[in-house]
UniProtKB/TrEMBL annotation:
One of its GO terms (molecular function) is medium-chain fatty acid-CoA ligase activity. It comes from Dactylosporangium sucinum. Residues 11-105, 147-337 form the AMP-dependent synthetase/ligase domain. PANTHER family: 2-SUCCINYLBENZOATE--COA LIGASE, CHLOROPLASTIC_PEROXISOMAL, ACYL-COA SYNTHETASE. It comes from the Bacteria. Keywords: Ligase. It holds the Pfam family AMP-binding. GO terms for biological process: fatty acid metabolic process. Transmembrane segments: none annotated. This is Acid-CoA ligase.
């Protein structure tokens, strides 16, 4: 039986009111407490006239109030728009102008936005004045997602499916209703938001990290005996670089679900750490137009594979720039065709993607093998052209990030028609020759220039703004050091 997200949360509270729902640090919010909090926020939203079909935006660093706010929005039939807290004030304002939500919650002061604003505290005060119970309404749209982290151009993606689910069914691979999930990702990013909401609606205990720290993440998994965790390249890399101190402390995880692109060497390291059955992932873009599913077992059989399209859900075709289909093993544009019979999303602020025969291209390159398994190479817009052939920056970045001193790396086009590496080595400046030593790259893929920084080049979702760095490198010329 399917329930709205708000009704599912209420059901879990009725079943076991005292069971932990959200833990942040030493503060534990029971199911009953969270449900009551959601009711108050929903009443405040209703007092401001928010109702079915409306969009409400919110932002902020990880705290339990973000989850309560999301379910409060769903409870009145509205649609949440989580805006990544780390986006600039200009980007936030641009997203708000695109979507035009009816209300924003906890929007930072520097964001220029003429629309209505409120705070979580004000909503709770309004609820106390308004009184009355709030019924659960099935929102017509699940959420509004944001994108543009890799391109620098904000856009919004409206997920046009009702916000409802079966509270007793597994909502994601390996996620067991009633289990425990450690959430190291930002709630205002897509994966962190979606996975945390699914967990709460199916009775899971969400152990939320206010800020990601690799050692603390390992400790929380061990202490809370977590059985499920979502992770991105930055999370996996930081934990992997802890080395032997991790030991078997993550052994309780039934599934580590990978989000976004993860380098092959790092994926293999985590397969070795957890076992192939426990590492799973999907591919399909922010809009989730299709579902290509992969796991550690498939990867060991076919190293580098993204997965295979879900039967009856989607089909994958590879086409060249002219739109013609190419044979197996040939790299080209990845087109995904939905087979479910309905389009479940639409864009705001971006043109519709190129479509051929109902299949859509979301900007990625890759190839299919003879058995129909998909291999994703990189985004076409980020390919680096050299005289010796194209270079796919994701491969270069993954190799650089193997070095123990490198926290993150971005590879972009050099002004000299080669590869330029921007490398985040906090507190140190290694010689370029040291970074180049032992890289599993062909000669034309090796960086010819380096820029060193002391700041993460990827957000916690794994997104790196290569376009911005490409412009900066082109403007500055070839830089070594910095």
């Amino acid at each position: 039986m399917r329930f709205s997200y708000g009704a599912a949360l209420r059901l879990q509270a009725q079943r076991d009111p005292g069971r932990p729902a959200v833990t942040v640090g030493d503060v534990v919010h029971s199911r009953a407490h969270l449900d009551s909090w959601v009711d108050r926020l929903a009443a405040g939203l209703r007092a401001l006239g928010v109702g079915p079909g409306d969009i409400v935006a919110f932002t902020g660093r990880n705290h339990a109030g973000l989850l309560a706010c999301s379910f409060g929005i769903w409870r009145v039939g509205a649609t949440p728009l989580p805006i990544p807290w780390h986006r600039s004030a200009g980007d936030m304002a641009a997203l708000l102008r695109l979507v035009e939500p009816c209300l924003t919650v906890d929007l930072p002061g520097p964001v220029v936005w003429p629309g209505r604003r409120t705070t979580l505290g004000e909503l709770a005060a309004l609820a106390a004045a308004a009184g009355g119970a709030v019924g659960d309404v099935v929102p017509p749209r699940l959420r509004v997602g944001t994108s543009g982290g890799s391109t620098g151009t904000p856009k919004a993606i409206v997920i046009d499916v009702p916000a409802e689910l079966d509270p007793d069914a597994s909502p994601a691979p390996g996620m067991t209703p009633g289990g425990t999930q450690v959430m190291p990702l930002n709630l205002t990013d897509g994966a962190g938001f979606v996975m945390s909401a699914l967990a709460l609606a199916t009775g899971c205990h969400v152990v939320l990290m206010p800020r990601f720290d690799a050692r603390e993440c390992v400790r929380l998994v061990e202490t809370h005996r977590a059985d499920w965790m979502a992770a991105t390249q930055p999370v996996l890399l930081a934990i992997e670089k802890l080395g032997a101190e991790v030991g078997d402390r993550l052994a309780g995880l039934t599934v580590c679900h990978l989000q976004g692109g993860v380098g092959d060497w790092l994926k293999r390291a985590w397969i070795d750490r957890l076992g192939p059955d426990r590492l799973q992932w999907t591919y399909g873009g922010t809009d989730a137009r299709g579902s290509v599913i992969g796991d550690g077992n498939v990867w060991l059989e076919r190293p580098g594979v993204a997965g295979r399209p879900s039967p009856g859900v989607c089909e994958v075709e590879i086409r060249d720039a002219a739109g013609a289909r190419v044979p197996a093993g040939t790299r080209g544009r990845i087109y995904i065709r939905d087979l479910t019979g309905r389009r479940n999303f639409h864009y705001i602020g971006a043109p519709a993607p190129p479509t051929i025969g109902g299949a859509e291209w979301i900007g990625d390159l890759g190839y299919l093998d003879q058995d129909g398994y998909l291999y994703v190479v990189d985004r076409e817009a980020d390919v680096i052209e050299t005289g010796a052939g194209p270079v796919y920056p994701g491969f270069v970045e993954a190799e650089l990030e193997r070095h123990p001193l490198v926290r993150s790396a971005v590879a972009v086009q050099s002004p000299t028609a080669g590869v330029h590496a921007v490398v985040d080595c906090p507190g140190v400046r290694p010689e370029p020759s040291e970074l180049l030593r032992g890289l599993a790259l062909r000669p034309h893929e090796l960086p010819r220039g380096f820029t060193f920084v002391d700041e993460p080049l990827r957000d916690l979702a794994g997104k790196a703004n290569r376009r911005s760095w490409r412009r900066r490198v082109a403007a500055a010329g070839r830089i070594v050091g910095g």
